[in-house]
Known about the structure:
Blueprint: H1 3-16, H2 20-33, H3 38-50, H4 54-67, H5 72-82, H6 89-99, H7 106-122, H8 129-137, H9 144-156, H10 160-173, H11 178-190, H12 194-208, H13 221-233, H14 237-242, E1 247-251, H15 256-260, E2 269-275, E3 280-287, H16 288-294, H17 300-313
Parallel strand pairs: 1-3
Antiparallel strand pairs: 2-3
Amino acid sequence: MDRFSxxxxxSWDLISRGKNASxxxxxxKALELDRKNPEVHNLIGYIHALDGEFDDALExxxxxxxxxxxxxxxxxxxxxxxxxxDADPDxxxxxxxxxxxxxxxxxxxADAALIEIEALFSAGRDAEVRGRLEALDGVEALPSVYRAxxxxxxxxxxxxxRAREHVEAALxxxxxxxxxxxxxxxxxRDEGRRVDAVRAFLTVREGDLELPRVPWGASCxxxxxxxxxxxxxxLPEEQRRLLEGVEVCVAPYxxxxxxxxxxxxxxxxxxxxVDAARGAFRRLWVFSLNLERTAPPxxxxxxxxxxLAYEIGEPCRxxx
Length: 320
C-alpha cells in the first residue's frame, strides 16, 4: 500500500473509533502528498461535518467535486448538508439530480432520491415528492433502513397504508431501527391505537438516549433557555402573545410520563397549560437533544422559531 492510501485508510479507521481530530491529521498528511485527489477532500469534508463545521465541510466537498465532477460521494454529502431548510435545499435538489445522471447502484439511487425528498420538503416543494417516491417504491431488495425512510416520506404526504407497508417490512427485517419504530408510533397515534403508539415511542426514547451528543450542543440548560427566549422575540406579535410570561422548562428528552400521554418523543418544543384568563400558555417544554439533532450548528435559532410557530399554531388540543 502506498503512503497516500495508508493515510486515507488510517483516517477512516480513526473516524470509526470517534477520534476525529486524529483522523483530520491523517487526512491532511494524505493531502500533503496529493492535493488534487478528490478522495482526500471528500474525507476532510466528512470530518468537518462530523464536528459541526458545515461551512468548512461544504468547501471541501465542493473542492472534491471541482476535481471530479462525477464523484458521487461529495455530491451526496454536500446535498445532505444543504437539504436543511436553513441551508440551500434548491441547490441540494440540483446536486441530487446531477447524481441521478450517474450509473448508480440501487442503494446509491435510493440515497440520492431520499436526500432529494428531504430537500423538496425543506424547499416547500411537497408536490414533487410523490413522483420521487413512486420511482423509489419500485426498487426491489433495498435494505431495511431505506424502507424505513421511504415509509416516513409516504407518511409525510399522507399515504398511510403505503407508509405502513414499508415500515412494517423494515421492522420485520430489523427490529432495532429507531426511525421505523418512530414512524410506526406516529401511525398508531393517528389511528387512536394508544398502546401501540406508546410502546413504539418508548422504544424510540430508549434508543435515542443512547446516541452520542452532537458536538454543537448547548453546554447547559440555561444556554438553551436563553436561546428559546431570543427565538420567542422573533415570532410574530400574535404568537409572541401566546407565550407571554411562559415558564420555559428545558429537558434533554420527553420523559416516560409524557410519552405515556403520547407526546412525540422527537418533538423540539411542547406548549401546555392554557391560562384562559390571559389566553396564553403557562409552560413551554424544550427538549434539548431533539433540538440539537434537528438543527445545524448555525441554525439553532431558526429551528426554534420554526418549532415554536408550528407548536403554538396547531389547532388547540388537550394542553394538560
